[in-house]
Amino acid sequence: MAHKLLLLIHLVGFAAYLGAGFAQQKFMGRSAQSGVAGAVRDEYERLSAAVITRIELPSLFVQVATGVIFLVLAPVWLTQGWLHGKLACVLALLVLSHLEMFNARKIVRARAARGEAASAEIAERKARHRMLGTIGSVAVVLVVGLVAFGTG
User: Fold this and answer.
1) Do 103 and 132 form a contact (C-beta atoms < 8 A)?
2) Residue 72 sits in which domain range?
3) pLDDT tens digits, one per residue of 97-138
């Protein structure tokens, strides 16, 4: 029963991570569209930063914590080659999520401090944010593929 509960928590963390990642990328993407009112654009930027900080990263840490518990309970999993690939992808996702968080927070701070004068810097940061999201999406697909085909 404890194993099933642990698996449920791990999967809920994964679902929360995916949802938050999708939402924060959508918010940031919408903020970059032309014709969006300044107040709405600013709110999208703030929402993106908040979602990363309050949902995406904590849910990823839940996954890491439950994954560590799985490995402590069954260290034999470490003999599986596919798991090493999954762990490498998870490490990449941890780094990418932190980079997205720092980037989104810098966008919000630049907008608050300099307003429209920060537009060029913010546009570059939004392009970087989009690229980080794309890399993260590839890593998530790799994680799902490794789990789906590695455990079979």
Assistant:
1) yes
2) 2-150
3) 999 999 999 999 999 999 999 999 999 999 999 999 999 999
Burial of residue 129 (number of CB atoms within 10 Å: 0-12, 13-18, 19+): buried
Q: Determine whether 104 is exposed, middle or buried from the number of CB atoms within 10 Å of its CB (0-12, 13-18, 19+).
A: buried
pTM of the model: 0.93
SS3 content of the chain, % helix, strand, coil (to 5): 95, 0, 5
For helices 81-114 and 119-150, the axis angle rounded to 10 degrees is 160
Cβ partners under 8 Å of residue 94, min gap 6: 60, 64
- H helix or E strand, kind and range, residue 47: helix 38-51
Q: Contact, 149 vs 82, CB < 8 A? A: yes
Helices and strands (DSSP H and E) totals, the chain: 5, 0
The domain total for the chain is 1
Q: Is residue 103 within 8 Å of 129, Cβ to Cβ? A: yes
Rounded to whole angstroms, how far apart are CA atoms 132 and 24?
Answer: 12
